[in-house]
């Protein structure tokens, strides 16, 4: 999607830098239009670096492209954050005094204004009247947050956090659908815990962050998302309030949840770190240390292979997810590179895509950054003409956006 991000002259402009980054990570093209005065807070170099696009404040640049009209015509959405009291007044009056206000007049795209100002300015009758008129015209004006303002002041008028604005952006874009509109996507996330006794379990270090990023990216693309959540360090935020969340504990519980829902899904993404083994015997009372110092012997047994079983059932029945994405967390060993192990796993499991995570000490687990390779089966490579294995080093949001992009390409064929 093409989003124009307008920035007016408020100190909250620094928050818009992070908003631009979030929108870019979601796969949108972001054109930033700051007002001339807003450059006192955040300069052009920052906006161009974050958006990867040229930035201008003047209607006299790019005249040969009629840029002040083209930006508004080509936009899928225009967001202005922060929108100061002065800016709201100028928009209400229909002024075209700079590139940003001219672009707003030249668009038929949805418009989202995000106010930020001191409490007294927000409560002023003139501002409230301007907001009411703008809303009557069909412009979406967010309510400001309540909290710390410039200096020692506190109250309503604070710019909402970028994540909240991003969620509002998603809602507006989804009114027009998305690449996965009408699709059902089932995603597993987090780790599983296998009880040993009433107080102990076998588990892993999965935080669930990658699964949440995938759920958010799928939702942003318009999909109906069900998240099967195991043990998670981070819980779904307000931006995921519209998705179904199914909480599970053990691998067997996750297996049951997937099997009961996969038949209705168009795609399954198995990003959860599922325990391969569980204790063969559960102790109904806490295991005590023996007086002679001997260590207890714990016998393990195999857990169900959810990924392989789902692929096999789909292939046998001819129903279920058209696209199945597996994940492989590999450290490698003295004989094999992680990428080699992932290739073997892709062939063994039979899924369309396999995402390799290189894991280990201080790698991936619990972090916002990651390194992934996306591998495709032979059949999927034929569908993705010219496919080369993807390699991403960046945020988990960026990784999720690429996975969802590949998933969409396969569903569209």
Automatic annotation (TrEMBL):
Listed A to Z, the keywords are: Decarboxylase, Flavoprotein, FMN, Ligase, Lyase, Magnesium, Metal-binding, Multifunctional enzyme
* UniProt region (Phosphopantothenoylcysteine decarboxylase), positions on chain: 1-184
Q: To which protein family does this belong?
A: In the C-terminal section; belongs to the PPC synthetase family.
This protein's encoding gene: coaBC
Q: Which domain of life is it from?
A: Bacteria
> What does the UniProt function comment say about this protein?
Catalyzes two steps in the biosynthesis of coenzyme A. In the first step cysteine is conjugated to 4'-phosphopantothenate to form 4-phosphopantothenoylcysteine, in the latter compound is decarboxylated to form 4'-phosphopantotheine. Catalyzes two sequential steps in the biosynthesis of coenzyme A. In the first step cysteine is conjugated to 4'-phosphopantothenate to form 4-phosphopantothenoylcysteine. In the second step the latter compound is decarboxylated to form 4'-phosphopantotheine.
UniProt domain Flavoprotein: residue ranges: 1-168
Pathway where this protein functions: Cofactor biosynthesis; coenzyme A biosynthesis; CoA from (R)-pantothenate: step 2/5; Cofactor biosynthesis; coenzyme A biosynthesis; CoA from (R)-pantothenate: step 3/5
Query: Where in the numbering of this chain does the DNA/pantothenate metabolism flavoprotein C-terminal domain appear?
Result: 180-405
- Its protein name is Coenzyme A biosynthesis bifunctional protein CoaBC
Question: Is Transferase given among the entry's keywords?
Answer: no
CC cofactor: Mg(2+); FMN
UniProt catalytic activity: N-[(R)-4-phosphopantothenoyl]-L-cysteine + H(+) = (R)-4'-phosphopantetheine + CO2; (R)-4'-phosphopantothenate + L-cysteine + CTP = N-[(R)-4-phosphopantothenoyl]-L-cysteine + CMP + diphosphate + H(+)
Q: How many cofactor units bind, and how?
A: Binds 1 FMN per subunit.
